[in-house]
């Protein structure tokens, strides 16, 4: 092992590493802004995906319930924010009021999905959750009649950005001699939220609840025999996963300023699943890595493949969007074939996914 | 009465198509307990290949039936090739892995197929060349078109053919043996890999036929058409009892009818102005024969999922199935 990474004999290296990462994260948006504000926006969306992947990881990774309709909770959070802070109903509540509401509404939907599906396991659950995601989307698309709630396929525009009194996150400003564009301000907000969520996740994993989830995932019958209330644990997993999705949705709403059912299609759910699976189900850092990789690699390709194709063939043959989706699909298949526990596997999950007797 | 009968006819037509797609799901599930998530995409590829061929042949003025048959004849091998390839490279290596692994792999395959199809046929909606002259017959006050009659007839033929294959041939016996117990079937001299590959091939061929039928019925095909159709067919397979061949047929037809009747009547049933005590509350909207329809027929796609959830909650083994859907 390289001495530079030998943290076991030299624990101080961990702190050095943390310091380097923290510094990088702090400087990152200004460095990216030199390349183009687009990249700061891309980074923000990557952080949103990290949030989503962490939320889904609670359901899929910790509790072992494959949820293919996770985007429904993202949608619920986004629409809750949009309805309470836009001209749609003329309501303009501050974001620190709405985000908790969004989280709670999403958690309620999580329980709503979890209750009828408690008895289902594995692949059946996957399909039912997928159906649930579609139902939510169909409702969002059609709830414009007879009373206009969601404004149907046109979506909701003019959503309020986050603001603290006069401090508006969407407006560019000059503070401390630096140019703070809207995306840069959002970056720090998102970073703070993601750190909080990470802390919650890390604490959860090794808590009584986290161990109960693991027990339910490994063997539900045995877990019940050991006195774990499996019903409550599964519902809790759905509710907590959903509430993270709801918060992410609310932030998405505010950053975009516009949402429509188009943003909450099945493919989004599958993208988040791909992130969790690629990174390593059940491993928090793996999931973060998966989300960051699958957010950035397609964007980098988008910026390289297009000029490359135009240089080679004189025109664009393969749209970057298609390449992005092909990467997601291939990632799912290849990871399952060659590294079923993901890039950074969690120890328990690895045993489970590679040992055929554990099935 | 005639509206009811009309909805039943429409539902029956669509349900027959669901049944043919559901057979593909149920056969694969019965034999290797895998939800072949990519099956819907195979249906889409069948429709696209057939549309392309039919589009090329349409200007020659050949008999429409012949043109469609040639289209189907090209779609079937194409879909079978896709089915074999997917099974060989994405599912077979995972046969001994825990169940979530092949399911996730199947989701990946589905995305890949969908976007490859987009590369080949573009995002645009392909429309069915107008070669079939639509005729409408009136039966007991309800209309039925020649296309609908053809679809129903083909579905019955296909299902009868499949039943013969599964219950009367050596391959069918081998398939049922493998479904019961792959290890023992292997010991009895059944080449399991070949049987499983054949199952995928047969499912894909059915998918091709279904793709052409659904494309002809709606008159359009697009690279996204597979996923929702696949989900509905899966719901049909679960409704009938997954792994159970007669169950898939029954489930498909039932789901089609439920969907058509649901879409036909939900608007009336949820029109709050029908109910006196609510109508008085909504007097502004209901005055002069106004409507206050909570859920209109645009919620049609919800029914399949609601049926799916209800079946899984109350009778996970489906209408005809014996297997309990509680295995992780």
CA-based shape of chain A: globular
Spatial arrangement of strands, main beta sheet of chain A: 1-2
**Tally of individual helices of chain B:** 13
Radius of gyration of chain A (Å): 21 Å
Query: How many helical elements of chain A?
Result: 13
The count of DSSP E runs of length 2 or more, i.e. the number of strands of chain A, is 8
The chain-level structural class of chain B is mainly alpha
User: Spatial order of the strands in the main sheet of chain B?
Assistant: 1-4
Q: Estimate percent helicity of chain A.
A: 55-70%
Oligomer: heterodimer
Biggest interface and which pair forms it? A-B, 51 and 55 residues
| Biggest sheet statistics of chain A | 2 strands, antiparallel
- Poorly predicted regions of chain B are 324-328
The CATH C-level class name of chain B = Mainly Alpha
Q: How far is it from the N-terminal to the C-terminal residue of chain B, by CA?
A: 46 Å
Features:
heterodimer; A: mainly alpha; two-stranded antiparallel ribbon; two-stranded antiparallel sheet; 13 helices; globular; B: 328 residues; mainly alpha; ABC transporter involved in vitamin B12 uptake, BtuC; 4 strands; 71% helix
Characterize the structure shown.
The complex is a heterodimer of chains A (359) and B (328). With 359 residues, chain A is mainly α. Chain A has a domain at 28-265. Chain A contains 13 helices and 8 strands. Chain A has helices spanning 12-35, 37-62, 71-84, 95-114, 122-142, 182-205, 208-218, 220-225, 230-256, 266-279, 284-313, 320-338, 347-354, and strands at 85-86, 91-92, 156-157, 163-164, 167-168, 173-175, 178-180, 258-259. In chain A, the strands form 4 sheets. In chain A, strands 1-2 form a two-stranded antiparallel ribbon. In chain A, helix 1 packs antiparallel against helix 6 and helix 7 (208-218) packs across helix 9 (230-256). Chain B is mainly α and 328 residues long. Chain B has a single domain (2-314), classed as ABC transporter involved in vitamin B12 uptake, BtuC (Orthogonal Bundle). Helices cover 71% and strands 4% of the residues of chain B. Chain B is built from 13 helices and 4 strands. Chain B has helices spanning 2-32, 39-57, 64-91, 100-121, 146-168, 170-180, 182-187, 192-218, 225-240, 245-269, 276-281, 283-286, 300-314, and strands at 126-127, 136-139, 142-145, 220-221. A two-stranded antiparallel ribbon of chain B has the order 1-4. Chain B has a two-stranded antiparallel sheet with strand order 2-3. In chain B, helix 2 packs across helix 9 (225-240). The termini of chain B are far apart. In chain B, 50% of the residues are buried. At the A-B interface, helix 5, helix 10 and helix 12 of A face helix 4, helix 9 and helix 13 of B.
